[in-house]
Write a structure and sequence with these properties.
alpha+beta; Beta-Lactamase; Helix Hairpins; Heat Shock Protein 90; six-stranded mixed sheet; five-stranded mixed sheet; 16% strand; rod-shaped
Length: 443
Protein backbone atom coordinates (compact mmCIF):
# COMPACT_ATOMS: atom_id res chain seq x y z
CA UNK A 1 0.00 0.00 0.00
CA UNK A 2 1.35 3.41 -0.98
CA UNK A 3 2.20 6.10 1.54
CA UNK A 4 -0.38 8.45 0.01
CA UNK A 5 -3.15 5.85 0.34
CA UNK A 6 -2.20 5.11 3.94
CA UNK A 7 -2.23 8.83 4.74
CA UNK A 8 -5.59 9.26 2.99
CA UNK A 9 -7.16 6.43 4.99
CA UNK A 10 -5.58 7.78 8.17
CA UNK A 11 -6.90 11.30 7.53
CA UNK A 12 -10.43 9.99 6.82
CA UNK A 13 -10.45 7.91 10.00
CA UNK A 14 -8.95 10.72 12.04
CA UNK A 15 -11.39 13.36 10.77
CA UNK A 16 -14.32 10.96 11.24
CA UNK A 17 -13.23 10.16 14.79
CA UNK A 18 -12.62 13.80 15.68
CA UNK A 19 -15.93 14.80 14.08
CA UNK A 20 -17.77 12.12 16.05
CA UNK A 21 -16.16 13.16 19.33
CA UNK A 22 -16.84 16.84 18.60
CA UNK A 23 -20.47 16.11 17.68
CA UNK A 24 -21.08 14.11 20.85
CA UNK A 25 -19.41 16.81 22.96
CA UNK A 26 -21.46 19.57 21.28
CA UNK A 27 -24.69 17.63 21.74
CA UNK A 28 -23.90 16.88 25.40
CA UNK A 29 -23.02 20.50 26.21
CA UNK A 30 -26.05 21.81 24.31
CA UNK A 31 -28.35 19.40 26.16
CA UNK A 32 -26.99 20.53 29.53
CA UNK A 33 -27.42 24.18 28.53
CA UNK A 34 -30.99 23.63 27.27
CA UNK A 35 -31.97 21.70 30.39
CA UNK A 36 -30.53 24.41 32.63
CA UNK A 37 -32.31 27.13 30.66
CA UNK A 38 -35.74 25.44 30.65
CA UNK A 39 -35.45 24.29 34.26
CA UNK A 40 -34.83 27.91 35.21
CA UNK A 41 -37.78 28.98 33.06
CA UNK A 42 -40.06 26.42 34.72
CA UNK A 43 -38.96 27.49 38.18
CA UNK A 44 -39.53 31.21 37.48
CA UNK A 45 -42.92 30.52 35.91
CA UNK A 46 -44.01 28.35 38.86
CA UNK A 47 -42.99 31.05 41.32
CA UNK A 48 -44.92 33.64 39.34
CA UNK A 49 -48.02 31.44 39.46
CA UNK A 50 -47.70 31.06 43.22
CA UNK A 51 -47.60 34.83 43.54
CA UNK A 52 -51.22 35.07 42.26
CA UNK A 53 -54.03 35.76 44.72
CA UNK A 54 -55.40 32.31 45.58
CA UNK A 55 -58.80 33.76 46.59
CA UNK A 56 -59.43 34.97 43.08
CA UNK A 57 -58.81 31.57 41.56
CA UNK A 58 -61.60 29.17 40.74
CA UNK A 59 -61.72 26.18 38.46
CA UNK A 60 -61.06 27.53 35.02
CA UNK A 61 -59.11 27.03 31.83
CA UNK A 62 -57.46 29.64 29.70
CA UNK A 63 -58.62 29.89 26.09
CA UNK A 64 -56.89 27.88 23.38
CA UNK A 65 -54.43 30.01 21.44
CA UNK A 66 -53.19 27.78 18.61
CA UNK A 67 -56.12 28.66 16.38
CA UNK A 68 -55.63 32.35 17.13
CA UNK A 69 -51.97 32.17 16.17
CA UNK A 70 -52.74 30.20 13.04
CA UNK A 71 -55.22 32.83 11.86
CA UNK A 72 -52.66 35.56 12.50
CA UNK A 73 -49.81 33.70 10.78
CA UNK A 74 -48.15 32.70 14.03
CA UNK A 75 -47.04 29.36 15.40
CA UNK A 76 -46.99 27.67 18.79
CA UNK A 77 -45.62 24.40 20.14
CA UNK A 78 -48.04 23.02 22.70
CA UNK A 79 -45.25 20.89 24.23
CA UNK A 80 -43.08 23.90 25.06
CA UNK A 81 -44.70 24.68 28.42
CA UNK A 82 -47.88 23.68 30.29
CA UNK A 83 -49.15 24.48 33.80
CA UNK A 84 -51.97 23.83 36.22
CA UNK A 85 -52.92 25.06 39.72
CA UNK A 86 -54.61 22.78 42.25
CA UNK A 87 -55.95 23.17 45.75
CA UNK A 88 -54.32 21.07 48.44
CA UNK A 89 -57.14 18.53 48.17
CA UNK A 90 -56.57 18.09 44.42
CA UNK A 91 -59.32 20.35 43.15
CA UNK A 92 -58.13 22.01 39.85
CA UNK A 93 -58.27 25.79 39.85
CA UNK A 94 -56.53 26.98 36.69
CA UNK A 95 -54.66 25.57 33.65
CA UNK A 96 -53.28 26.78 30.35
CA UNK A 97 -56.21 25.46 28.35
CA UNK A 98 -54.00 23.03 26.41
CA UNK A 99 -51.94 20.23 27.95
CA UNK A 100 -52.49 21.65 31.44
CA UNK A 101 -55.97 20.15 31.47
CA UNK A 102 -54.47 16.63 31.38
CA UNK A 103 -52.02 17.13 34.24
CA UNK A 104 -52.80 14.82 37.17
CA UNK A 105 -52.63 16.03 40.76
CA UNK A 106 -49.71 14.86 42.88
CA UNK A 107 -49.47 15.56 46.62
CA UNK A 108 -45.93 14.28 47.08
CA UNK A 109 -42.80 16.37 47.64
CA UNK A 110 -41.93 19.52 45.75
CA UNK A 111 -39.30 19.60 42.98
CA UNK A 112 -38.59 18.17 39.53
CA UNK A 113 -39.70 14.68 38.58
CA UNK A 114 -40.62 12.59 35.57
CA UNK A 115 -44.27 12.17 34.71
CA UNK A 116 -46.92 11.68 32.04
CA UNK A 117 -50.16 13.42 31.14
CA UNK A 118 -53.52 11.75 31.27
CA UNK A 119 -53.95 9.53 28.21
CA UNK A 120 -50.43 10.33 26.87
CA UNK A 121 -47.39 8.04 26.83
CA UNK A 122 -44.84 10.80 26.19
CA UNK A 123 -42.43 11.61 29.04
CA UNK A 124 -42.65 15.07 30.64
CA UNK A 125 -40.45 16.98 33.05
CA UNK A 126 -42.72 18.32 35.81
CA UNK A 127 -41.99 20.89 38.51
CA UNK A 128 -44.28 20.88 41.58
CA UNK A 129 -44.32 23.74 44.12
CA UNK A 130 -46.59 24.32 47.16
CA UNK A 131 -47.68 27.71 48.41
CA UNK A 132 -46.40 28.98 51.73
CA UNK A 133 -49.77 28.36 53.45
CA UNK A 134 -49.95 24.80 52.06
CA UNK A 135 -53.31 25.57 50.40
CA UNK A 136 -52.29 25.41 46.73
CA UNK A 137 -49.94 23.36 44.51
CA UNK A 138 -48.59 24.48 41.16
CA UNK A 139 -47.23 22.21 38.42
CA UNK A 140 -45.30 23.44 35.37
CA UNK A 141 -44.35 20.82 32.79
CA UNK A 142 -42.43 20.47 29.56
CA UNK A 143 -42.24 17.47 27.27
CA UNK A 144 -38.79 15.86 27.03
CA UNK A 145 -39.17 15.45 23.26
CA UNK A 146 -39.35 19.23 22.93
CA UNK A 147 -36.05 19.60 24.77
CA UNK A 148 -34.45 16.81 22.74
CA UNK A 149 -35.58 18.41 19.48
CA UNK A 150 -34.26 21.77 20.65
CA UNK A 151 -30.92 20.19 21.63
CA UNK A 152 -30.62 18.41 18.27
CA UNK A 153 -31.47 21.55 16.30
CA UNK A 154 -28.98 23.72 18.20
CA UNK A 155 -26.21 21.10 17.97
CA UNK A 156 -26.78 20.64 14.25
CA UNK A 157 -26.83 24.40 13.74
CA UNK A 158 -23.39 24.67 15.35
CA UNK A 159 -21.97 21.57 13.60
CA UNK A 160 -23.48 21.98 10.14
CA UNK A 161 -20.83 24.43 8.86
CA UNK A 162 -18.12 21.98 9.92
CA UNK A 163 -19.98 19.03 8.35
CA UNK A 164 -20.08 20.94 5.06
CA UNK A 165 -16.45 22.06 5.39
CA UNK A 166 -14.97 18.66 6.34
CA UNK A 167 -15.10 17.10 2.83
CA UNK A 168 -13.48 20.17 1.31
CA UNK A 169 -10.90 20.26 4.10
CA UNK A 170 -10.14 16.57 3.52
CA UNK A 171 -9.74 17.14 -0.22
CA UNK A 172 -7.44 20.12 0.37
CA UNK A 173 -5.44 18.10 2.88
CA UNK A 174 -4.99 15.20 0.48
CA UNK A 175 -4.02 17.63 -2.29
CA UNK A 176 -1.43 19.16 0.03
CA UNK A 177 -0.02 15.72 0.87
CA UNK A 178 0.08 14.83 -2.84
CA UNK A 179 1.96 18.05 -3.56
CA UNK A 180 4.44 17.55 -0.69
CA UNK A 181 5.18 13.96 -1.77
CA UNK A 182 6.36 15.10 -5.20
CA UNK A 183 10.02 15.38 -4.09
CA UNK A 184 9.94 11.73 -3.04
CA UNK A 185 8.49 10.77 -6.40
CA UNK A 186 11.21 12.73 -8.19
CA UNK A 187 13.80 11.03 -5.98
CA UNK A 188 12.32 7.62 -6.82
CA UNK A 189 12.38 8.38 -10.54
CA UNK A 190 15.98 9.57 -10.25
CA UNK A 191 17.02 6.36 -8.49
CA UNK A 192 15.25 4.21 -11.09
CA UNK A 193 17.16 5.92 -13.93
CA UNK A 194 20.49 5.86 -12.07
CA UNK A 195 23.34 3.78 -13.49
CA UNK A 196 24.67 1.00 -11.21
CA UNK A 197 28.15 2.54 -11.04
CA UNK A 198 26.98 6.15 -10.72
CA UNK A 199 28.38 7.60 -7.46
CA UNK A 200 27.20 11.17 -8.02
CA UNK A 201 25.58 12.47 -4.80
CA UNK A 202 21.86 13.19 -4.88
CA UNK A 203 20.85 16.84 -4.64
CA UNK A 204 19.52 17.69 -1.16
CA UNK A 205 18.72 21.35 -1.80
CA UNK A 206 15.07 21.03 -2.84
CA UNK A 207 14.12 18.25 -0.43
CA UNK A 208 12.22 18.63 2.86
CA UNK A 209 14.27 18.62 6.02
CA UNK A 210 12.73 15.28 7.07
CA UNK A 211 13.92 13.61 3.83
CA UNK A 212 17.42 15.08 3.81
CA UNK A 213 18.85 12.54 6.35
CA UNK A 214 17.59 9.71 4.09
CA UNK A 215 19.24 11.28 1.05
CA UNK A 216 22.45 11.88 3.03
CA UNK A 217 22.46 8.20 4.03
CA UNK A 218 21.92 7.19 0.38
CA UNK A 219 24.80 9.43 -0.69
CA UNK A 220 26.99 7.80 1.93
CA UNK A 221 25.92 4.38 0.65
CA UNK A 222 26.73 5.39 -2.94
CA UNK A 223 30.16 6.58 -1.83
CA UNK A 224 30.88 3.34 0.02
CA UNK A 225 29.63 1.27 -2.89
CA UNK A 226 31.84 3.26 -5.28
CA UNK A 227 34.83 2.63 -3.02
CA UNK A 228 33.96 -1.06 -2.90
CA UNK A 229 33.68 -1.28 -6.68
CA UNK A 230 36.93 0.65 -7.02
CA UNK A 231 38.69 -1.72 -4.62
CA UNK A 232 37.38 -4.75 -6.50
CA UNK A 233 38.45 -3.31 -9.85
CA UNK A 234 41.85 -2.36 -8.47
CA UNK A 235 42.29 -5.81 -6.95
CA UNK A 236 41.39 -7.45 -10.27
CA UNK A 237 43.70 -5.13 -12.19
CA UNK A 238 46.56 -5.59 -9.72
CA UNK A 239 46.16 -9.35 -9.67
CA UNK A 240 46.04 -9.55 -13.46
CA UNK A 241 49.09 -7.28 -13.78
CA UNK A 242 51.27 -8.79 -11.08
CA UNK A 243 50.45 -12.45 -11.69
CA UNK A 244 51.33 -12.21 -15.39
CA UNK A 245 55.09 -12.32 -14.80
CA UNK A 246 55.14 -15.14 -12.20
CA UNK A 247 52.80 -17.27 -14.29
CA UNK A 248 54.89 -16.66 -17.40
CA UNK A 249 58.02 -17.69 -15.47
CA UNK A 250 56.30 -20.83 -14.23
CA UNK A 251 55.35 -21.68 -17.79
CA UNK A 252 58.94 -21.21 -18.95
CA UNK A 253 60.28 -23.45 -16.16
CA UNK A 254 57.66 -26.06 -17.03
CA UNK A 255 58.83 -26.02 -20.67
CA UNK A 256 62.45 -26.32 -19.51
CA UNK A 257 61.56 -29.40 -17.47
CA UNK A 258 59.87 -30.94 -20.50
CA UNK A 259 62.92 -30.24 -22.70
CA UNK A 260 65.47 -31.52 -20.16
CA UNK A 261 65.14 -35.20 -21.04
CA UNK A 262 68.44 -36.60 -19.71
CA UNK A 263 69.98 -33.47 -18.22
CA UNK A 264 69.39 -34.09 -14.52
CA UNK A 265 71.15 -30.86 -13.46
CA UNK A 266 68.99 -28.75 -15.74
CA UNK A 267 65.85 -30.56 -14.56
CA UNK A 268 66.78 -30.06 -10.92
CA UNK A 269 67.54 -26.37 -11.41
CA UNK A 270 64.28 -25.90 -13.32
CA UNK A 271 62.36 -27.61 -10.50
CA UNK A 272 64.00 -25.31 -7.97
CA UNK A 273 63.10 -22.29 -10.05
CA UNK A 274 59.56 -23.63 -10.44
CA UNK A 275 59.20 -24.09 -6.67
CA UNK A 276 60.58 -20.61 -6.05
CA UNK A 277 58.15 -19.16 -8.59
CA UNK A 278 55.23 -20.97 -6.99
CA UNK A 279 56.21 -19.63 -3.58
CA UNK A 280 56.50 -16.10 -4.98
CA UNK A 281 53.09 -16.35 -6.69
CA UNK A 282 51.56 -17.77 -3.52
CA UNK A 283 53.00 -14.94 -1.42
CA UNK A 284 51.78 -12.38 -3.97
CA UNK A 285 48.22 -13.81 -3.92
CA UNK A 286 48.22 -13.87 -0.12
CA UNK A 287 49.34 -10.27 0.04
CA UNK A 288 46.75 -9.19 -2.53
CA UNK A 289 43.97 -10.91 -0.57
CA UNK A 290 45.23 -9.44 2.70
CA UNK A 291 45.40 -5.95 1.22
CA UNK A 292 41.86 -6.29 -0.17
CA UNK A 293 40.56 -7.43 3.23
CA UNK A 294 42.34 -4.67 5.12
CA UNK A 295 40.80 -2.04 2.86
CA UNK A 296 37.31 -3.20 3.85
CA UNK A 297 35.46 -1.22 6.55
CA UNK A 298 33.69 -4.04 8.36
CA UNK A 299 36.77 -5.12 10.35
CA UNK A 300 36.15 -2.45 13.00
CA UNK A 301 33.41 -4.63 14.47
CA UNK A 302 36.10 -7.19 15.40
CA UNK A 303 38.24 -4.77 17.41
CA UNK A 304 39.23 -5.74 20.97
CA UNK A 305 41.86 -4.69 23.53
CA UNK A 306 45.29 -5.90 22.37
CA UNK A 307 48.34 -5.74 24.71
CA UNK A 308 51.24 -4.63 22.50
CA UNK A 309 54.19 -5.75 24.65
CA UNK A 310 53.33 -9.49 24.55
CA UNK A 311 52.56 -9.20 20.83
CA UNK A 312 56.03 -7.80 20.07
CA UNK A 313 57.76 -10.28 22.38
CA UNK A 314 56.10 -13.23 20.66
CA UNK A 315 56.90 -11.80 17.23
CA UNK A 316 60.60 -11.36 17.99
CA UNK A 317 60.83 -14.84 19.47
CA UNK A 318 59.33 -16.34 16.30
CA UNK A 319 61.84 -14.49 14.09
CA UNK A 320 64.86 -15.03 16.31
CA UNK A 321 66.08 -18.16 14.41
CA UNK A 322 65.93 -16.28 11.09
CA UNK A 323 67.76 -13.29 12.57
CA UNK A 324 70.40 -15.56 14.09
CA UNK A 325 70.90 -17.29 10.75
CA UNK A 326 71.46 -13.89 9.15
CA UNK A 327 73.73 -12.77 12.03
CA UNK A 328 71.31 -9.99 12.98
CA UNK A 329 70.57 -8.68 16.46
CA UNK A 330 66.91 -8.26 17.53
CA UNK A 331 66.18 -6.01 20.53
CA UNK A 332 63.00 -4.92 22.30
CA UNK A 333 62.94 -1.97 24.71
CA UNK A 334 59.53 -1.90 26.41
CA UNK A 335 59.32 1.39 28.31
CA UNK A 336 55.56 0.98 28.77
CA UNK A 337 52.88 -1.69 28.32
CA UNK A 338 50.14 0.00 26.29
CA UNK A 339 46.89 -1.72 25.32
CA UNK A 340 45.39 -0.76 21.94
CA UNK A 341 41.82 -1.35 20.80
CA UNK A 342 42.28 -3.09 17.47
CA UNK A 343 42.23 -6.26 15.43
CA UNK A 344 44.75 -8.75 16.91
CA UNK A 345 45.61 -10.53 13.64
CA UNK A 346 45.98 -7.29 11.67
CA UNK A 347 48.17 -5.64 14.31
CA UNK A 348 50.33 -8.76 14.35
CA UNK A 349 50.49 -8.63 10.52
CA UNK A 350 51.51 -4.94 10.65
CA UNK A 351 54.45 -5.63 12.99
CA UNK A 352 55.37 -8.81 11.12
CA UNK A 353 55.61 -7.01 7.77
CA UNK A 354 57.84 -4.29 9.21
CA UNK A 355 60.09 -6.88 10.83
CA UNK A 356 60.15 -9.03 7.67
CA UNK A 357 61.20 -6.02 5.58
CA UNK A 358 64.00 -5.22 8.02
CA UNK A 359 65.21 -8.83 7.98
CA UNK A 360 64.96 -9.10 4.18
CA UNK A 361 66.60 -5.84 3.15
CA UNK A 362 69.10 -5.07 5.92
CA UNK A 363 72.57 -6.56 5.35
CA UNK A 364 73.89 -9.37 7.57
CA UNK A 365 75.21 -8.20 10.92
CA UNK A 366 72.66 -5.40 11.24
CA UNK A 367 70.83 -4.51 14.41
CA UNK A 368 67.00 -4.23 14.50
CA UNK A 369 65.57 -2.47 17.52
CA UNK A 370 61.92 -2.11 18.71
CA UNK A 371 61.15 0.64 21.23
CA UNK A 372 57.71 0.52 22.83
CA UNK A 373 56.36 3.63 24.56
CA UNK A 374 52.92 4.56 25.86
CA UNK A 375 51.83 6.14 22.55
CA UNK A 376 54.49 5.13 20.02
CA UNK A 377 56.37 2.15 18.57
CA UNK A 378 59.74 2.83 16.90
CA UNK A 379 61.45 0.26 14.65
CA UNK A 380 65.06 1.09 13.74
CA UNK A 381 67.79 -0.70 11.83
CA UNK A 382 71.35 0.30 11.00
CA UNK A 383 71.27 -1.08 7.48
CA UNK A 384 72.06 0.75 4.28
CA UNK A 385 68.77 2.71 4.36
CA UNK A 386 67.18 4.41 1.35
CA UNK A 387 67.58 7.72 -0.42
CA UNK A 388 65.31 10.70 0.15
CA UNK A 389 63.50 10.04 -3.14
CA UNK A 390 62.97 6.38 -2.26
CA UNK A 391 61.86 7.33 1.26
CA UNK A 392 59.06 9.46 -0.18
CA UNK A 393 57.80 6.54 -2.31
CA UNK A 394 57.71 3.93 0.43
CA UNK A 395 54.23 2.44 0.64
CA UNK A 396 53.33 2.78 -3.03
CA UNK A 397 51.61 -0.31 -4.35
CA UNK A 398 53.96 -2.68 -6.23
CA UNK A 399 56.89 -0.27 -5.93
CA UNK A 400 60.27 -1.60 -4.74
CA UNK A 401 63.57 0.29 -4.51
CA UNK A 402 65.69 -0.45 -7.57
CA UNK A 403 68.61 -2.81 -7.29
CA UNK A 404 66.94 -5.21 -4.86
CA UNK A 405 68.03 -8.84 -5.02
CA UNK A 406 65.39 -10.10 -2.61
CA UNK A 407 62.12 -11.36 -4.06
CA UNK A 408 59.00 -9.38 -3.24
CA UNK A 409 55.85 -7.85 -4.63
CA UNK A 410 56.01 -4.31 -3.24
CA UNK A 411 52.84 -4.74 -1.20
CA UNK A 412 54.24 -5.15 2.31
CA UNK A 413 54.40 -1.44 3.21
CA UNK A 414 51.06 -0.82 1.46
CA UNK A 415 49.50 -3.41 3.77
CA UNK A 416 51.17 -1.74 6.77
CA UNK A 417 49.80 1.67 5.79
CA UNK A 418 46.27 0.34 5.32
CA UNK A 419 46.28 -1.47 8.68
CA UNK A 420 47.65 1.67 10.34
CA UNK A 421 44.93 3.81 8.75
CA UNK A 422 42.25 1.34 9.89
CA UNK A 423 43.47 1.64 13.50
CA UNK A 424 44.05 5.39 13.44
CA UNK A 425 47.84 4.94 13.64
CA UNK A 426 50.12 7.57 12.11
CA UNK A 427 53.13 6.08 10.34
CA UNK A 428 56.30 8.01 9.48
CA UNK A 429 59.55 6.94 7.75
CA UNK A 430 62.85 8.71 8.47
CA UNK A 431 66.61 8.26 8.26
CA UNK A 432 68.80 7.01 11.12
CA UNK A 433 72.20 8.60 11.59
CA UNK A 434 74.76 7.65 10.44
CA UNK A 435 72.72 5.15 8.36
CA UNK A 436 69.60 3.08 8.57
CA UNK A 437 65.83 3.43 8.48
CA UNK A 438 63.41 4.39 11.25
CA UNK A 439 59.66 3.63 11.22
CA UNK A 440 57.59 5.47 13.82
CA UNK A 441 54.06 4.39 14.67
CA UNK A 442 52.08 6.80 16.85
CA UNK A 443 48.46 7.00 17.97
Amino acid sequence: MSLFLRLAIGFVLLITLCGGVASYSAWHQTRDTVNELFDTQQMLFAKRLLSLDPTSLHAASLPKTKSILRHHRGDQDDDALAFAIFRADGQPLLNDGENGRDMQFDDKRDGFREGRLRGDDDSWRLLWLTSADKQYRVVVGQEWEYRDDMTRDLALASLMPWLYAMPFMLLMLLALVWFELRPLKRLTASLQLRAPDDATPLDEARLPIEVQPLVAALNGLFHRMAQLVQRERRFTSDAAHELRSPLAALRVQSEVIQLADDDEAMRKRALQQLDSGIQRATRLVDQLLTLSRVEADDLRSEFQPVPLAPLLQKLLIEHFPQAEAQQMDLQLHAQAEPVMNGHPLLLNLLMRNLLDNALRYAPPGSQIQFTLNARTIIIEDNGSGVSDEQLARLGERFWRPPGQTQTGSGLGISIVKNIAQLHGIRIAFSHVQPQGLRVTLSW
